[in-house]
Structures are given as C-alpha cells and as structure tokens.
Amino acid sequence: MSMVKNDLIYTVTRKGAVTIPAEIRRKYGLKKGSRVKFIETDEGILLVPIIPLEDLFGVDRDVKETVYQMIRELQEERRKVSEER
Questions:
Q1: What CA–CA distance (Å, rounded) separates 68 from 63?
Q2: 46 with 56, same domain?
Q3: I want to staple 46 with a disulfide (CB 3.0 to 4.6 A). Which of 32, 36, 39, 52 is the partner?
Q4: How many domains does the chain have?
Q5: 38-79 pLDDT, tens digit each
Q6: First vs last Cα of the chain: how many Å apart?
Q7: Containing domain of residue 61, as a range?
Q8: 69: alpha, beta or left, given left = phi > 0 and alpha = psi -120 to 50?
Q9: How many other CB atoms sit within 10 Å of the CB of residue 77?
Q10: Same domain for 34 and 56?
C-alpha cells in the first residue's frame, strides 16, 4: 500500500456527501459542477476527476513535433512496404 501524504479525515453526511478539502479541489481543478468517478480497488476507493474534453485542448503542444515525426516515419514505412509489393 502506498504512503499517504496527509491524513485527511472527514465525516460522511446522512445523505452520503463528503466535503473534498479545498487544498485537493485546488490541486485537481475541482469546482462546482465538476464530475468525479469512484473506482473500487483492492486498496480502497479512488476518487478520480473526470476532465472535460475541452480542457484537454492543447495538452499535446509539448509533444506535437514528436507526434508529427512519428507520423512521418510511419508514412515512410508504409510507402516502402507498398513499393516492395
């Protein structure tokens, strides 16, 4: 089991709600209306933020040239294979 950075203990309300600490909401960009997914594991329950598709726009900018180079290499390999046939 992994080490826990900070022990954060909260109480579940009668309706099943738990407050997510402000520090964690800020760190993971959770705000009113954010969606999360509960995943059961052997070690417990994971609470995973669901990132809206529009928030992913531009996340590849640091690796864009690498991706383009890989595409060019694949196209070149396909061209060579088709010429050999």
A1: 9
A2: no
A3: 39
A4: 2
A5: 999 999 999 999 887 777 777 777 788 888 888 999 999 998
A6: 54
A7: 51-85
A8: alpha
A9: 10
A10: no
